[in-house]
Structure formats: C-alpha cells, structure tokens
Amino acid sequence: MSDTKQRLLDGALAAVSAHGIAGVSARTIASAAGVNQALVFYHFGSVDELLAAACTVNTAARVRAYSARFAEVRTLRELLDVGRTLHEREKELGHVSVLAQLLAGAQTDRRLAESVAAALRLWVAEIETVLRRLLTGSPFAEVADVGGLARAVSGAFVGLELYEGVDEAGADQAFAALEQLALLVDVVDELGPVPRRALKATVERAARRTRES
Question: pTM for the whole thing?
C-alpha cells in the first residue's frame, strides 16, 4: 500500500475522532492526513468508500495484533482478561470513540453499515475460534451455539465500551458479572466424570425443552 493511501486511511479515522461522523469530509480527512483533498477521490472514489476501507483495514490490523494473545487463552476467564486489556488499550488509542461514531453513522448509511459489520465479524471470527477450542469436551459443547455465543460476546464488549462512557461504575459491574459467569463455567469443567455426565444430561434435557416449547 502506498504511503499516501495509508495516510488517507489514518486521516479518515483521525477526522472521525476529531469531528464526529457528521463532520467528516474530504477536506477534514485531507487536513488530518496532510495531503490534497483531491487525493481522497483519486485513491478511493468517495469519502464513503474511504471510511469503509479505513474501518476494514484498521480493524484487520488490530485483530492481527491480538491474535497471539487469543491463541494463548486457556480458559473463559483468560478470554475476558484479554478482552479487558484490549478494551483499555482501544480506549487509550481513541478507537472506542471512533467506533461509537462509526456505529452512529452506520445507522443511516448502508455502505458504512456493511463495512462496520464486516469489521466486527473479524473480531467475532477470532473469538469463535477461541470458544470452540475452550468448549471442546465441555458439557456445554453439544448444546451451545458457539457462533451465536461469539457474536454475543463481541456485542457485549462493544456495548460495554460505549456504556462505560456514561456509566463507568455500571460497566465495571457488568464486566465483573461476565467474569463470574466465566468462573462458573471453568468450575464446571473441573468437575469429575460422574458429576460432568449428570450435568451434561441435565443441560441436554433443558435444551430439548427449550427447543420443543
């Protein structure tokens, strides 16, 4: 990728952070990137296309940066610890505020919505890989919708990132509740074979009743 295109991608996110999604234009992006605004259209065709590319490229880079940490996770508690670390780092870098603006803009911009959704799916795929590995052999493995669970975890973290901006104590309480749930699952996985079989049968019966209701 050329230096100019990278500067435009970085400039697009910087403009979103500085001006909000409503204040983003070829001029504000070019100013943040330190280039002529005509280059926005030369390289990307439109501001919308540039924002879409910036969202996808930036998220892919961040997922790659954390992939080694995800690969080392051995318990759900560790997964949440990585999520906490990631959250603090993303907030420090200003990515949380940018995400809030992109999500706001995506509500009325179909092209941006598709790009934001695709970017979030990169995180979902990473988390789903970890969950499938962690739940292998667990009593929950046969009844859990791992793909749906990965989306729930991703959605929860996105929501908590935004929620923290208005209620930090409430967000901390929610994070603590997730950690308690992860601890419960870890405790179940440490049970002996007899109670594990009994729990598995109970979970399967409950899942059957849910499907039949």
Answer: 0.79
